[in-house]
Amino acid sequence: MLNLPNCLTLVRILTIPFFLIELSAHRYLSALVIFIVGGLTDFLDGLAARLLKQQTALGTYLDPVADKLLVITSFIMLGLEGGIPSWLAVTVVSRDLLIIVGYGTIFFLIEEKIQVKPSAIGKWSTLLQLLTLAFALVFLHDPEIAQPWWKDLLIALTALATVISGLQYLYRGLILLQNKAPTLNRLS
User: What are the Cα distances from residue 35, in Å, to 21, 59, 173, 185?
Assistant: First the structure.
């Protein structure tokens, strides 16, 4: 069902190509504005879904896909543009791909529906990733703003939260698979 929250999620997905065009053209301020619009739609779609009681199965799957698309493409492009260290881009993209592949594997191996809930460290990781992306765009737009110590601190905190949340999601997935092992053995 296409309701207001799902429309906002689609707007977030549609901002991604425009963001990438602006970023590749080195128009960092307009890329930042588009990135902020995408981020606001993430906040607003969740708020609208709760307030209007319009949570749908489509939105449950579409929202995290939109988030992953925005984060993955942003980190790849900013890593290539030199706005963030390439090792951080690889760390974030690897974690998100691990989550996507892990969820897909679990989804296909387990016959029952599983509920996906982000952990607290996962939410902190995402927040730090988004802040890192936003500040990277600000730094690219005006390099004089960047103070090395807090830029380095933000990058370190983002990397740490990303790695810890990735390990936590991996652990949760392995526990889920282990608990479902008897069911999986019957499938063999």
Answer: 12, 20, 31, 45
Contact between 169 and 119 under an 8 Å Cβ cutoff? The reply is: yes
Could you tell me where the DSSP H helices lie in the chain? Answer: 4-24, 28-51, 57-81, 86-109, 120-141, 148-179, 181-187
pLDDT score recorded for residue 90? 97
Q: Which token pair is 117?
A: 């809930």
pLDDT < 50 stretches in the chain: 187-188
Cα-Cα-Cα-Cα torsion 21, 27, 31, 34, nearest 10 degrees, comes to -90
Helix (H, G, I), strand (E, B) or coil at 19: helix
Domains annotated for the chain, with CATH where assigned, are: 4-187 (1.20.120.1760)
Structure confidence at residue 49 (pLDDT): 78
pLDDT single digits (tens) 79-114 = 998 999 999 999 999 999 988 888 888 877 776 666
Contacts of 168 (CB under 8 A, 6+ apart): 119, 121, 122
The Cα–Cα gap between 106 and 114 comes to: 9
Closest CA to 145 of 39, 34, 37, 32: 32
Q: What is the enclosing helix (H) or strand (E) of 53?
A: none
**How far, in Å, are 87, 92, 95, 103, 165 from residue 159 at the CA level?**
9, 8, 10, 22, 10
- Residue 78 contacts residue 84 (beta carbons within 8 Å): yes
